[in-house]
Amino acid sequence: MNSLEQLSQTARGLYETVATEFASLDLGFLNFKPAPESWSILECLEHLNRYSRYYNPAIAKAIAKNSDGKFVQSISHSWLGKKSLDMVRPDNLKKNKTVKHMNPNNSQLGRATVEEFLKHQQELLNLLQSAKGADLNKKAVPVEFFKLLKLRIGETLEFVVVHETRHVQQALRVKQQLEKRAAA
């Protein structure tokens, strides 16, 4: 189980990693794909941007509606929340098929993708701060691909951070492969 403080630390770390590891890379490196069906660094970040475009406003709305003095700071998980988290954990090596509109494979991407990711990270850090005044166990965030299902505020924040960790690690592996090629 993660606390809001742990999630904030992880989100800050992801911001720093992307800013230091990717922001200064040549556009050719950012678009390098180890294999045709795998994602480039920019595609990993664009995938996360697509999720952030939906989840950041949805979480903000849920926090605003559930910050009425009934603060519940510990994150507990529903069955759906546990399942969602297990799917995106970085140590889950099973490849998951992403829904079509969230799959950035073969997109034309540029530096703006990195800048957008960093902007979304700032928003997420602000949301994690705002969540300190909310009931984290309120089911209030509609699931992106099936809006009739709702996740709890806390588990949604955890899902977003864990999902980002998975794909930033994926982008770092792409960078490692690139460095190996350059050294060879």
From TrEMBL:
DinB-like domain sequence ranges: 22-171
Domain of life: Bacteria
InterPro entries hit by this protein: DinB-like (IPR024775), DinB/YfiT-like (IPR034660)
Pfam families attached to this UniProt entry: DinB_2
Signal peptide: none
Name under which the protein is recorded: DinB family protein
Organism (species): Pontibacter locisalis
Taxonomic lineage from the root: Bacteria, Pseudomonadati, Bacteroidota, Cytophagia, Cytophagales
